[in-house]
Amino acid sequence: MLVPKYHEMYRPFLESLHDEKLHTIKEIKEVVAVAMSIDAEARKEMLPSGKQRVFDNRIGWTRTYLKKAGLIDSPSRGVFSITSEGIRLLQENPVIINDELLMRYESFRLFKTPYVERREDTITNQMEDTPQDILDDAYKAINASLADEILTEIMKQSPSFFEELVVTLLEKMGYGGSLKGAGEVVGKSGDEGIDGVIREDKLGFSLIYIQAKRWDLDRVIGRPEIQKFVGALAGQGAPKGLFITTALFSKEAISYAHKQHTTKVVLADGEMLAKLMIENNLGVSTEITYEIKKVDTDFFSD
Length: 302
What we know:
Elements (H helix, E strand, L loop, with lengths): L9 H6 L7 E2 H11 L4 H4 L10 H15 L3 E5 L2 E4 L1 H9 L6 H4 L3 H11 L5 H7 L2 H25 L3 H14 L10 E3 L10 E4 L7 E7 L6 E2 L1 H14 L3 E6 L2 E2 L1 H8 L5 E5 L1 H10 L17 H4 L2
Parallel strand pairs: 6-8, 7-9, 8-10
Antiparallel strand pairs: 1-3, 2-3, 4-5, 5-6
């Protein structure tokens, strides 16, 4: 048989976790395959790229979307459990569990809407999209999913790991150039709110002071925290500072940072952090590369 679409596997994926115990993705795949009568031959089918099996790819998106909806959780790598909301949905026993139903969950809407409902008339929009539009949207969706996975992995690490990660990221972005020891973690007791420093230029004339906080993804950082950071920068006589976190910043915090003139303060939230890690190939690896080609008109011209 053909491999089911990702949304067709929502219900069996959830039902594989109905016992409220921890299960590996391998166990879940087996249960889903049996429940949906996906034979061994179908499970071997490869994507056109030849890099991944269709079944593995689609159930991967099943997992991603259920997690974004808050119906499943992943306490450790490759291990999943159902949440209380997931249990409630199964008890509700809807006729069909699809993307439309998952739109009831705000976290899923925020994740999915920018890429699926760019305009009000989604169906008409999809018909008018060019292949390039569709590819661009798919690329954005894949990167959004990757960013979510990156932040999930970061939250499993220690605060000290996060501080080291931030300094490494800045070095990969080119700060300090090829200068040895361009950045370092200094966060410790008595650090006065400074977790790291990095040289801005290749010769090391200017330093950027860093505060790196691995806080809950849904935490909102307000103005008081930024005021404390500005005070810490003043204590160091530092003209520039970066406050980078896995959390979010309030409008008041962003506005306060923008109003600073004597001290330049840049705020980077979890979304920006993940984006920068993807752009600079930190903590990620290339899985598939596609080339889009066009006719070389010079070749065919007289």
